[in-house]
Amino acid sequence: MGFELxxxxxxxxxxxxxxxxxxxxxxxxxGFSVTMGAxxxxxxxxxxxxxxxxxxxxxxxxxxxxxxGLSRRAALETAEGLWQAGIRDILALRGDQPHAMxxxxxxxxxxxxxxxxxxAERHPFRIAVAAYxxxxxxxxTLDQDIDHLKLKLDAGAHMAYCxxxxxxxxxxxxxxxxxxxxxxxxxxxxxxxxxxxxRVRSFARANGTTVPDWxxxxxxxSEDKPEMQPYLAAAATVEQxxxxxxxxxxxxxxxxMNRWPLPLALSRLLGRC
Length: 273
Fold this sequence. Notes:
The chain is α/β, with parallel strands linked by helices. It contains ten helices and nine strands.
């Protein structure tokens, strides 16, 4: 099991970040990942946080590297800084243009596959890429999106991490579709803990992720009983994880939102720590 974190932006949030890391370290058999903001907006924070997590835990740490909005030189300098700091794992992403950026983007890597190839030439990084079980919002069809995933893997990536799903069957269908395209690299599903359902549903809709009727109904029918919702969230999250494992997940990558209680409870209920 691995856990995704984001760089903290204040002292108070840094204390929460550090506690989350220390609490989850025993369960992080697959280590941690640290996100990077659109257009590289948290480059320094991503570097510093990744190094801190590695130092605190001794676990593998995968730093996200988003290319869009960065020049080729800036992207490769960022990767070099990670390598020199001892970070060997990178999640290579095209990323999104930050909303605050105006005017033309700096000339850089137009596609994640180009970034993967450049990283593979520079150092023997362990490179992961993103996958989208219900297709990327910009892709025409799922098959076209899987063809793009294969390009990234053929360029030198070793594995893929999925955008979270709320219907685990979508992940199962995605694995079958990838196999038909000749993809045999590990494909790890993302799991979003279901606490704060309104926020999770908003994320899902923004990403084109299907919201199953049973989940919508589960949380809607308990709106007048807020004391029940943490228990429902925990039970539903465990059910999601068990179903992903049943569909063949080699591991599970948990989006922690820098919170540890439910991710740690999940790992213990699954017998992972």
